[in-house]
Amino acid sequence: MSAEVLLACCMAIFVASIIPSPSMLLALAKGANHGWGAGALSGAGNIAATIVQAVASYVMILEVGGLSSSLLLGMKLVGALYIFYIGWTLMGIASSGSDREVAARSGSSWQHVRDGFMFAVVNPKAIVFFAALFPQFVGRSAAGGVIAMGVPIVTIGFACFMIYVVAGRVMVEILGNGRHVGKIFGICIMLCALALLFARIT
C-alpha cells in the first residue's frame, strides 16, 4: 500500500470515526459519568468490535460476494434496542463529583468494555463502511492490505473515542449539575437508537 493510498485511507477512517454516532455519545457519557479510566476501557471494547466488523466485512466480500440484507436488518434491530436500553439507564446517573468519586461509582471494568463493544458491534453501518472501504483501497483479495489497515483503524478509532471521553469530562466540569447532563446524554442516545431503527443501512 503506497503512502498516498494509506493517507487517503486514514482520512476516510478519521472522518467516519470522529462524526457523532451512538458510540461517540457513549464515549461522552462514559467520560462524564465514570471518568477517564472507564472511558478508555469502553474505547478498547469499541475498537475490538471494530476489528470484528472489519474482518466480517472482508470475509463476506471475499467469500460471499456481498452483504446479507437479512443479517444487516437483524443487527439493526438488535442494535437499536440495546442502544435505547443503555440510553434509558443513563437517564438516572448523576455525573457530578470529583474524579475519585466518579471512579468509585464507575462499575466493573468488564461492564465498560462490554458497553463499548456492544455499541459498536451491533451497528451495521460500520460493516457497510468497511465493505465500501476495502475494495477502494486494498481490493477483494489483498489480505495483506486489510491487515496493514488494522493499525490506522485501531489507532484512529481509539483516539477519536478518547477525544469524546475527554469532551464529556470537560463538559461536566463546566456545567456542574451532573444529573441533568446524564439525562441529556441518555435522551440523545435513545434518539440515536430510534434513528438507527428507521434509517436505511445501504
From TrEMBL:
Question: Any stretches that span the bilayer, and where are they?
Answer: 43-65, 77-96, 116-134, 146-168, 180-199
Please provide the record's keywords in A-Z order: Cell membrane, Membrane, Transmembrane, Transmembrane helix
Pfam families found in the cross-reference section:
LysE (PF01810)
In the bilayer, the protein is annotated as: Multi-pass membrane protein
- Tell me the domain of life: Bacteria
Which compartments is it annotated to reside in? Cell membrane
- The keyword Signal appears for this protein: no
| Record-linked PANTHER family | ARGININE EXPORTER PROTEIN ARGO, ARGININE EXPORTER PROTEIN ARGO-RELATED
Q: What is the protein name for this chain? A: LysE family translocator
Q: Which organism is it from?
A: Sorangium atrum
